[in-house]
Amino acid sequence: MCCRMTCFFKQSFTAADLKDLTAADLKDLVEQYKDVYVEAKGEKFSTDPKKQLELAVNVVFDSWDSPRANKYRSINQITGLKGTVVNIQCMVFGNMGDTSGTGVLFTRNPSTGENKLYGEFLINAQGEDVVAGIRTSQYLVTMETCMPDAYRELVENYEILERHYKDMMDIEFTVQENRLWMLQCRTGTRTGKGAVTIVVEMVNEGLIDTKTAIKWVETQHLDQLLHPQVQSAGLRVGKGSKTGLGCNRHSLVWAGTSWVNR
């Protein structure tokens, strides 16, 4: 249903960013969202806050047996779990103007393992804007310029979290009117190259020992490393955003003004 709502937004409005929408646009968007809900659930969306909270909790519980969740557990050989829990928190808002924003970050580059902050940030936005691709995210470093105090606190916090968990972390955060809120953190996914680089550097930094480093390099990481690697020819004809690990191959044909994928 979320994907359908995103499609509604992109098809219905010419504004590039949510912040460009007028109050009338937003009211129209809400009505369309309500129509999608009625179509999917067969009933009107409740205006009772307690009922909305109950519905949100049940959605999380139901997600445990979704095809995507089952496939994820199968791929990662996660067994023996009986379900998930729901953590209810006070809402913070990253869409309260240019002193607010939201972002996600890895404490190290998950692709290369480089010991450098890697992430995305959006001013005047909520987390869904980042993950759903509704708006084009900015590099995390832009936050240092527009919200220096919150950025410095974020750097301090990620260093504390990495030292505590002794691993590369995936962190979500929101800034509401220049105040930083840490939403959640978890162990970050990484490529095979990233995994090896991270554990080697963490051993050299004294964060973990050699035995721990060996345990943290998974068989799938070694499988990636042992596959043939594509060497860059130095010619770039375009660019795009990564959506996952792996490699794909297509034929590109020049159509006079643009490249066509065949």
Produce a short descriptive summary:
The protein has 262 residues and is of the alpha+beta class. The chain is built from ten helices and seven strands.
The CATH class label of the largest domain is Alpha Beta
Percent of residues in beta strands?
5-15%
Count of discrete domains: 3
What is the CATH superfamily label of the largest domain?
A: ATP-grasp fold, B domain
Distance between the termini: 30 Å
Descriptive account of the structure:
The protein is of the alpha+beta class and 262 residues long. It has three domains: 1-45; 49-78; 92-226, D-amino Acid Aminotransferase, Chain A, domain 1 (2-Layer Sandwich), CATH 3.30.470. The protein has ten helices and seven strands. A five-stranded antiparallel sheet has the order 3-2-1-4-5. A hairpin with a 2-residue loop joins strand 4 (169-176) and strand 5. Helix 1 (2-12) runs antiparallel to helix 2 (23-41), helix 8 (192-205) runs antiparallel to helix 9 and helix 8 (192-205) crosses helix 10. It is globular and about 55 Å long. The model has no long low-confidence stretch (mean pLDDT 85).
